[in-house]
């Protein structure tokens, strides 16, 4: 993602009597630019989540039988499709989202048609099993709560990468509602915005610390 903002360019006039660049002024301008980008991302993050919930509401309104919410989630253990890697940079800790579902699709060595057919068959089977449990909302809650009580850490740890699948297909294995797809897309973008905001916040904090140290050194005469 590219974010355009006004960039301050140092000129020959922006120097002290010794000819060295005025670092504090330059870093202050850089800080203001980062704060401007942070404000922009905050608005974008908010808009994505608002749109995500709006599309989810429309999907529920348009669906006569199946509703999309807590009562229809498949709570059986699956590996996370997205994980967050933690690394380091000059500004400090840096976070990065890794889409394991896409990685799994890219790394598969099986023929495309065979893989697609196998996935569809498995999704249909799992969706059928899940639909059979959706007799009444209250009964479903009891069954899911009872199931969750039987899950331990070993069950989750033994889940294999083959259990990675797009969660949207738990509602429809072949053609999920358009509004539900749009909702998922907005929430995915919102998640990306969250990681960008955290990384940007780390950059801002690191720059503030540098400015405070330089200002303190300037005051103390060092």
Description:
This protein has 222 residues and is mainly alpha-helical. The chain has two domains: 1-63 and 178-222; 67-176, no CATH class. Helix content is 59%, strand content 7%. The protein has a two-stranded antiparallel ribbon. A hairpin with a 2-residue loop joins strand 1 and strand 2. Helix 1 runs antiparallel to helix 6 (178-220). The longest helix is centred in the last third of the chain and has 43 residues, at 178-220. The radius of gyration is 25 Å and the shape is elongated. The two termini are 41 Å apart. Mean pLDDT is 75; it is low at 1-21, 109-116 and 155-161. This is Vacuolar ATPase assembly protein VMA22. It comes from Candida oxycetoniae. It holds the Pfam family Vma22_CCDC115. GO terms for molecular function: unfolded protein binding. InterPro entries: Vma22/CCDC115.
| Main beta sheet strand tally, sense and closure | 2 strands, antiparallel
Structural class by sheet pairing and helices = mainly alpha
Helix content: 55-70%
The value of Rg in angstroms is: 25 Å
* Oligomeric state of shown chains: single chain
Count every beta strand, where a strand is a DSSP E run of 2 or more residues.
2
Strands side by side in the biggest sheet: 1-2
**Spans where pLDDT lies below 50 across 5 or more residues:** 1-21, 109-116, 155-161
Q: What's the tally of helices?
A: 6
- Could you spell the SSE succession in H and E letters? HEEHHHHH
Give the N-terminus to C-terminus distance in angstroms. Answer: 41 Å
GO molecular function: unfolded protein binding
GO cellular component, one term: Vma12-Vma22 assembly complex
Protein name: Vacuolar ATPase assembly protein VMA22
């Amino acid at each position: 993602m590219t974010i355009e903002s006004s960039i301050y360019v140092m000129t020959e006039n922006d120097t002290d009597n010794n000819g060295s660049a005025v670092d504090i002024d330059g870093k202050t301008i850089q800080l203001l630019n980062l704060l401007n980008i942070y404000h922009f991302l905050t608005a974008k993050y908010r808009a994505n989540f608002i749109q995500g919930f709006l599309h989810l509401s429309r999907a529920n309104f348009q669906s006569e039988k199946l509703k999309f919410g807590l009562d229809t989630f498949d709570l059986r253990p699956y590996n996370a499709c997205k994980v967050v890697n933690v690394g380091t940079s000059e500004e400090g800790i840096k976070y990065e989202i890794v889409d394991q579902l896409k990685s799994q699709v890219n790394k598969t060595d099986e023929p495309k048609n065979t893989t697609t057919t196998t996935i569809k068959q498995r999704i249909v089977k799992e969706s059928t099993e899940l639909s059979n449990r959706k007799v009444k909302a209250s009964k479903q809650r009891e069954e899911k709560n009872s199931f969750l009580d039987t899950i331990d850490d070993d069950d989750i740890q033994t889940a294999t990468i083959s259990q990675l699948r797009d969660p949207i297909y738990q509602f429809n294995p072949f053609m999920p509602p358009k509004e539900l797809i749009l909702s998922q897309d907005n929430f995915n973008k919102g998640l990306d915005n969250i990681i960008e905001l955290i990384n940007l916040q780390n950059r801002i904090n690191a720059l503030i610390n540098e400015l405070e140290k330089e200002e303190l050194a300037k005051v103390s005469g060092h």
